[in-house]
Amino acid sequence: MPNEPSGRQLQADLLTRYRQAGEASAAAASNDTLALPRRDPTAAAFFDVDNTVMRGASLFHFAVGLARRHYFSPREIAGFTVKQLKFVLSGSEDVEDMASATEAALSFIEGREVAELERLGEEVFDDSMVDKLIPGTLALAQGHLDAGQQVWLVTATPVELATVIARRLGLTGALGTVAQVVDGRYTGLLDGPPMHGLAKAEAVRAIATREGLDLARCSAYSDSSNDIPMLSIVGHPVAVNPDATLRAHAKQNGWATRDFRRREQVKRWALPAVAGAGGIALGVAVGYGLGLSRTRVYGVRPPGLG
């Protein structure tokens, strides 16, 4: 009987997969949206999207927009919902389970053209997502642009949708989950794990190497304790609209905190925060009136963080 891998080996394998996911995201990222000259070429700002730049989950808003455009059949919606409910209700934090659930959610785009999803992403953003943007966070991003720095989105959202959001906001570009593409069409599989947790930190490291950035001079912004790895590798981490765990971590480590929420806005916009695995399918289900309660899906967190 073959020997079981040790805990140290499993951890090393996990870190390798996260690194591969980050490198794949950086390789898929383009910075052709940068409109301003880089007067400060070694500094940049990295922004999480869901509940940092935008109220609620971007995948939720996108899925609802696709459903309204009859992108899915009722049978597809039912199939996605069953698969994602099983994952969410299981409470699994295993990276393999997250990847499987994300691929199940992405299966609806198998065989579809990338250009079609990008076009629909632009339509949905202009139609409904723009109203979910958080002005205070946008002002922070604009401050970095005005200083001649790059500004990147870093999100579990598929990179194509993330890039649409970055382009519409005039930002540098986006680092997101990378789905496999063959001949301009999606295969329905992922290129590595979802862009979540430690994978975000690895993506930031990879893009910093590519762009010649000094991470000690860079800033990062997020609402979630899942993003502590990304926040920890920059010189200027900022907790924006933080969850309780991140707020406590920020206070303990002397990080800046910005909160643009109002109590009535939180109540009104408390959409299911399904960033990461399962967002698309759950979003469609909610959009069709199934009324799922607010759910946060967590991934693997390195020991000692958060």
Can you offer a commentary on this structure?
The protein is of the alpha/beta class and 306 residues long. It has a single domain, classed as Rossmann fold, CATH 3.40.50. It is built from 12 helices and 8 strands. It has helices spanning 7-28, 58-68, 74-90, 95-106, 114-127, 135-146, 159-169, 198-211, 228-232, 244-253, 263-268, 279-287, and strands spanning 44-47, 150-158, 173-177, 179-182, 185-190, 219-222, 236-240, 256-258. It has a 6-stranded parallel beta sheet with strand order 3-2-1-6-7-8, with helices on both faces. Strands 4-5 form a two-stranded antiparallel ribbon. The N and C termini lie far apart (38 Å). The model is unreliable at 85-95 and 263-306 (pLDDT under 50).
User: What share of residues are in beta strands?
Assistant: 5-15%
Which regions contain 5 or more consecutive residues with pLDDT less than 50?
Answer: 85-95, 263-306
Taking Cα atoms only, what radius of gyration do you get, to the nearest Å? 18 Å
Inertia-based shape: globular
Quick one: biggest sheet?
6 strands, parallel
Continuous helix count = 12
CATH superfamily: HAD superfamily/HAD-like
CATH fold label:
Rossmann fold
- Tally of discrete structural domains: 1
For the secondary structure, the number of strands is: 8
**Overall pLDDT confidence:** 75
Helix/strand-derived class?
alpha/beta
Q: What is the rounded distance between the termini?
A: 38 Å
> What is the element string, with H for helices and E for strands?
HEHHHHHEHEEEHEHEHEHH
Q: Which CATH architecture?
A: 3-Layer(aba) Sandwich
Oligomeric status of the shown chains?
single chain
Task: Order the strands across the largest sheet as they lie in space.
Answer: 3-2-1-6-7-8
The CATH class assignment is Alpha Beta
